[in-house]
Amino acid sequence: MTLWDMTKEVYPKIEKYDLVGFASPVEFFGLPKFVYDWFRDLPLLKKPKYAFLLLTFGNIAGTSLLQLRTLVQGKGFRVIAGHVIHMPDNFPISRVKGFTASTSPNKQEFSRFQLFVRILKELIDSMKDDHEILEASFKLSLMSYFFNIPDRYAAKRSMGFKFVDEKACNQCSLCAKECPYDAIEMQKSPIFFEELCYGCWRCYNICPTKAIFTNKLKQKGHYPGPGQALIEKFNLKNDAKSE
Known about the structure:
Layout: E1 19-25, H1 33-41, E2 49-57, H2 64-73, E3 77-86, H3 92-96, H4 107-128, H5 142-146, H6 154-159, E4 162-164, H7 174-178, E5 184-186, E6 190-192, H8 202-206, E7 212-214, H9 228-233
Parallel strand pairs: 1-2, 2-3
Antiparallel strand pairs: 4-7, 5-6
């Protein structure tokens, strides 16, 4: 298995793989802009390949699974499985208001995820036996369809303008390195190019000194990454490497 970061890395040689997985967070009931940008330039497959989908959400998933399926199928893939899993919310404004989903996924949600994994393994075994796999169909809840209003600029509007506390900034450059839109330049302190920003809050969340703030939020609601409880729940290894 090879892992690729679609926010930073060029396209892999997809023809090398029998199965390709596409993963994305959900942002305001839809997919982040960087996902659309990545698929926009992805070459159309000359020969169909199997694919599976995985999305994470902290509040409401909306129809994001169907949106991702449309992008993937549009490039010539055959989607054979897909899943959306509830995770802790990393949206600082929601966290300040108490909507953290800190214990997610709950027992039932995690059981459904484990079922998805087992089904995917069975599909892979069938592929090894040269069985043809049918494309998956997805049934979403009525609530998901009700929130079928993805707005790529909603996150940006909710974030407002960014600033930096130069006394707190340790000039680590992490914000500039991790920005999926290359909207930050590191000089003596971070310089923000607001016209390129789409409000993902990545820089705000990961700043080790909490030096980055907005005109709407400061020193509150940070989610720098998976907590220990979530790591243990998924039996993750911090030193895990792809092969």
